[in-house]
Amino acid sequence: MIDRSVKQVLEAALEAARWAPSVHNTQPWTFSVSEEEIGLRADTDRKLRAGDASGRELLISCGAALFTMRTSIRSHGFEPVVRVLPDPDRPSLVATIRPGAAAPPDEATGLLGEQIERRRTHRAGFTGLPVPDRLLDRLVAAAAAGGARLTPVRAPGAVDVLAGLTRAAQGVQAGDRVRSLEVIRWARPPGSSRKDGVPADGYPRRAAPTDPGFPQRDYSWRHDWGGDGGAGTSIGVPALLTTTGDGREEWISCGQALQHVLLLAAAHGVSAAFHTQALELDLLREFLRRELCSGEHPQMIMRLGVTFDGTSAVRRPLADLVR
């Protein structure tokens, strides 16, 4: 018998949502609680004006928070009832979610729930330990269950294309002062008390080179911030996350699929490094769609691999998020 009150379940879901991944750890969401339902809203004040003018990455981030709440509610013994974009007159209302019927959690749900606060984004090379093919198959299935397609990129030529486009996009963006300032806005200097953005030990000062090279964001732009970046030089397994459509619903679905993949990967000791620079330039994103994604819309470029580097994580307190 489920003896947890709805209030406790909602509080746990809100606490879990804080740990969802977001672009530059902007945490672009707020929540409202009305009776037995949580409203998830996009915080457009935290949107990247230069890098994400359409709000695509913002809604992917919100989708990740939504899946995190769904997982938490399931972990506490209830089936989540979700409505996505429920009110056309309130476009910032991404979704509502509430506990439904009692449903004892299964082992898979418990496994995902345990990783919510443990999962970390990696921003350097990986060790040479392989990602098992069996796990990759499970990650592909997890993405498909959320309405997205995860495609591990194995062919050396395709890997070179992804790496080359990432380098080209990073080079263009590094020369754009507005974009560079936007990135550095979300880079936390050592000793900072901020509860958002990327901590100084969360990105490398000078990452060890990989072959081929997948450059990271330059969070240490014009500063000598950052950690040592670890000793790993493997690129891991590059992968593309795509959707058939390219609207707000698909972006939210992609975020949910992404978080499912990340939590499942983390449960098996695998981390992800993200490279969305090329997806923020329309011409390069369209090239990827046509040439590498079979006409589907690329929403995320990532590398999956094993790392033993421990990094800190910061999140805003619930008092700043619940309105």
From TrEMBL:
Gene3D superfamilies: NADH Oxidase
InterPro entries in the record: Nitroreductase, Nitroreductase-like, Nitroreductase/BluB
Pfam assignment, any one: Nitroreductase
Domain of life: Bacteria
Residue ranges, annotated region (Disordered): 188-216
GO molecular function terms noted in the UniProt entry: oxidoreductase activity
Record-annotated Nitroreductase domain positions: 7-34
NCBIfam families associated with the record: Rv3131_FMN_oxido
Name this protein carries in UniProt: Nitroreductase domain-containing protein
Organism, scientific name: Nonomuraea rubra
